[in-house]
């Protein structure tokens, strides 16, 4: 268990993403919004929670067969694109106040996705060797 991860900027951002995605999901469910809105918010909650658990339990260090930060960047990019489209539709249509609130929270979640993507891009370097076989400098 990595006790320092929740206090790190990336950890705090992941926790904020999970909580905001959950709030967005609950707004869409409570307002009987279109199924696409609810599905996107639910999937974002689940996937972000899985990445949070992956880093929290240090499973990324044990499962080296995938470059997890890059997968996390792809998740953030795809989530940001889908959130942009779906939440703008939710705000424009605004069938009720719950859908409008979910759309606004989704746009805030989009900003957190972009911030997470920027933090991850600063963290990784594809030019530097990784793992135990890396030469000492």
UniProtKB/TrEMBL annotation:
GO cellular component, one term: membrane
Broad class of where this protein is predominantly found: membrane
Keywords: Membrane, Transmembrane, Transmembrane helix
PROSITE patterns for the chain: MARVEL (PS51225)
UniProt domain MARVEL: residue ranges: 5-125
Keyword hit for Ribosomal protein: no
Transmembrane segments: 12-31, 37-57, 69-93, 99-120
Domain of life: Eukaryota
Cell compartment(s), UniProt: Membrane
Pfam family of the protein (one): MARVEL
Membrane-topology annotation of the record: Multi-pass membrane protein
Official protein name in the record: CKLF factor
């Amino acid at each position: 268990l990595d006790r320092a991860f929740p206090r790190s900027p990336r950890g705090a951002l992941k926790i904020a993403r999970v909580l905001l995605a959950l709030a967005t999901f609950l707004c869409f469910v409570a307002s009987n919004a279109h199924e696409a809105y609810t599905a996107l918010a639910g999937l974002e909650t689940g996937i972000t929670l899985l990445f949070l658990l992956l880093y929290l339990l240090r499973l990324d260090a044990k499962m080296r067969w995938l470059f997890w930060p890059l997968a996390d960047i792809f998740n953030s990019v795809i989530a940001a694109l889908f959130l942009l489209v779906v939440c703008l539709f939710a705000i424009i249509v605004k069938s009720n106040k719950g859908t409008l609130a979910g759309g606004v929270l989704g746009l805030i979640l989009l900003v957190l996705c972009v911030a997470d993507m920027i933090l991850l891009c600063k963290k990784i370097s594809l030019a530097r060797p990784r793992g135990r076989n890396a030469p000492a400098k």
